[in-house]
Amino acid sequence: MSKLWHNNTLRALAFFSIMAFMLVLVGVNQSWSVAIAILNLCIISAIMSLGLNLQWGYAGLFNVGIMGFTALGGIAAVLVSYPPVKDAWQVGGLGILGSLVVLLATIAVCVTLYRKLQSSSYRWLVLSLIILVGYFLLRLVYEPAVKAIEATDPSRSGFLGGLGLPSLLSWLVGGLFAAGAAWFIGKIALGLKSDYLAIATLGIAEIVVSVLRNEDWLSRGVKNVTGVPRPVPYEVELQQSPRFIEWVSNWNSAKLAALDEVARNDALQKLVSDASSIAVKLSYTGLFTAVLLLILLLSVLALHSPWGRMVRAIRDNEVAASAMGKDVKGRHLQIFVLGSAVFGMAGAMLVTLDGQFTPGAYSPLRYTFLVWVMVMVGGSGNNLGAVLGGFVVWFLWVEAEPAGFWLMNTITSGLDDGNALRTHLINNAQYMRVIVMGLVLLLVMRFSPWGLLPEQNGQRR
Amino acid sequence: MTDFLNALVLLTNFVLLPAITYGSQLALGALGVTLLYAVLRFSNFAQGETMAMGTALAILCTTLLQSIGVSLGVLPTALLGMLPAIVIMWGVVLLTDRWVYRYYRTKRSKSIVFVMASVGVMFVMNGLVRFLLGAGDRNFEDGERFIISAADFKLMTGLEEGLALKTTQVITIVLAAILVIALFWFLQKTKTGKSMRAYSDNENLALLSGIDPHRVVRITWMISATLAVIAGVLYGLDKGYKPLSYFNLLLPIFAAVIVGGVGKPAGAILGGFVIAFTEGLLTYAYKAFLNYLVPPAWLPEGLIQFLSTEYKVAITFVILVIVLLVRPTGILRGKVI
């Protein structure tokens, strides 16, 4: 029996069956719509978890800025798929493009001079002067444009909108955005001690989120962007489509036949509206599953390739690997960029799923820390483990809130309703989740560092 | 001449004084991080939450003291309430070390494992703090608010601009100075301080000369927790207690440590002030200041502000990036990493 338990394939099968069973249980007890909604977020979580597994599990890179890369993906979803706001473009589009040109030109001049003036003692003086000039030029073009854009119909738009391209494309663009930011961070912080990467990623994440919260012309800031286009049909469209109604009534013909004319119509209407919501969610499930399987396949192939072996060799002994002529910094940069691109894609997918972009909702707890718990619980270094971790931890995270309230209610049931302690405990029960997740991370790290599905043929840390 | 004085007072009131105060708070937090780094060799991500937790406990103790009628007169009662909070936090960090970090220390794990564990500790503490006090803001300042209010200053000097000297600002600066002097004296002159520096310089050699490593680690944790609680309380008195703002202090604190030189106490202080002054000078709106110095007709429209205050974090980050690119060891040549 214990031999069977140590067989990873069987373990994976067992855990995934349990997970599926839990989701079915939610479907039967609560509603199928809820179960599929949880499943969709489980899949996105699994994708993020695969990205982190690439960084931490394969290469041992510590990224505490997942939130920032996810948010970059989110804004990509808006910028690509949202229809352009013509009026805003007319008044401020030129200014924004102009300031972009100024910005890029300043950076280009700086980089060139930085290289040219390698030995000159004026280097820093010249560079600071150029940055100063560039900055004032930028302000000159940028500010009037922003003012004009934010003044166009501020209650409904007040921003530039996007390009109006298909939203599936935005998933790729989200990946590219995040990859670009990761390249910048990696260039600076990789090659120094690992603590620096952690601090740098923490910083970039906070900057990205604060830019998205404050630059209203770009992201509407705290006013949120709603109505981000979807790659799947809307519920209302389905409810009005005769083919869909016919299909629903055929599906439920036995149930409907038992009712009389009036009741039948009412029942059909309710069934159609339920079915439309489930159909929309299921189409998302299909798309997300395709992405998940693709990334999983690529990750598994990469891990078992010569490249994967090299990367793990670097992780387990950097000095030895570098003595063998492996480019440690180069591989780390590559992996950091690839993993972050996966976060960007997941971020874009999340915004597409919600249909809205809320910069205020990005919190390090939900978007960085939870992903860490997923990878650690699932088994770092094992791709299937990361996917499993994504499913299990997201499921627990969603179900922990009602459980926490129930727990606090039960514990304090001896006290009367107005009791100060009881109200305090119940009001603050939501923070229990944070504590529990922190404890889970610490306990898994300490007592079961290989997670539910351990890494195979690798060295255990 | 009066114009020049007015401009100077304006700058002191809105930039220099707040920057010195904020710099002292950052320096205290950064000292804790840098000491832990010097001895335990990892960046403690939980330092911000240690500050938050210490402040939360201090608030509870202060409320308790106030309810039994204790008061420090013109000084905020929190200065007294902070003492039991420090003692409780000693217990908290020592238990955390016993349950979390010691295991990895005896296993000689990579430093990144410690960092990760500290992130776990950070979230547990974050949850505990909000569970304890809720997520809302608290103002726990009492006593005299100003030593010199802006109106008094105007009366005294006859200038148009006022210079308000807040009690919390003076307390912060004085307390920070005392603590820093005490800390340096401790590290340079006492036997325990010397053994700490020896342990930090060369662990094996220190062990050979009979230094008790457990004691060094314990004392480092206690000092760092003390600094964290005091920094947290001072920050809370100055700006009001918000649980989330302590998480946001983490980046400036790390930046201060790295800018000054990792593992160098003097560097942490220097770094704290570099960060605080750059933030203050770059986010100040110079319109009123320049109005006194140049004819108004020369001035452009707008506030003449380099960056809006929302981007303080970006300033910190840019300083950090510049230091990492140009001089990764920091201004005072800290640990070569």
Index terms:
heterodimer, A: about 450 residues, mainly alpha, ABC transporter involved in vitamin B12 uptake, BtuC, 2 domains, about 75% helix, globular, B: about 325 residues, two-stranded antiparallel ribbon, 2 strands
CATH class of the largest domain in chain A: Mainly Alpha
Instruction: Return the CATH architecture of chain B.
Output: Orthogonal Bundle
Summarize the biggest pleated sheet of chain A. Answer: 2 strands, antiparallel
Order of helices and strands of chain B: HHHHEHEHHHHHHHH
In percent terms, what proportion of residues of chain A is strand? under 5%
Shape of chain B: globular
What does this structure look like?
The complex is a heterodimer of chains A (461) and B (337). With 461 residues, chain A is mainly α. In chain A, 77% of the residues lie in helices and 1% in strands. Chain A folds into 2 domains: 2-84 and 161-447, ABC transporter involved in vitamin B12 uptake, BtuC; 85-160. The longest helix of chain A is centred in the middle third of the chain and has 43 residues, at 261-303. Chain A is globular, with a radius of gyration of 26 Å. The mean pLDDT of chain A is 86. Chain B is an all-alpha fold. Helix content of chain B is 73%, strand content 1%. Chain B contains 13 helices and 2 strands, in the order ααααβαβαααααααα. In chain B, strands 1-2 form a two-stranded antiparallel ribbon.
What does the secondary structure layout of this molecule look like, with pairings?
The complex is a heterodimer of chains A (461) and B (337).
Chain A: H1 2-6, H2 8-29, H3 32-59, H4 66-81, H5 86-116, H6 123-151, H7 167-189, H8 194-214, H9 216-219, E1 225-226, H10 235-240, H11 242-251, H12 253-257, H13 261-303, H14 306-316, H15 318-323, H16 328-354, E2 356-357, H17 364-378, H18 383-411, H19 420-427, H20 432-447
Antiparallel strand pairs in A: 1-2
Chain B: H1 2-40, H2 47-67, H3 78-107, H4 111-133, E1 146-148, H5 150-157, E2 165-166, H6 167-189, H7 191-201, H8 203-208, H9 213-239, H10 243-260, H11 265-283, H12 287-293, H13 312-326
Antiparallel strand pairs in B: 1-2
Helix pairs in contact in B: 1-6, 1-9, 1-10, 1-11, 1-12, 2-3, 2-4, 2-9, 2-10, 3-4, 3-9, 6-7, 6-9, 7-9, 10-11, 10-13, 11-13
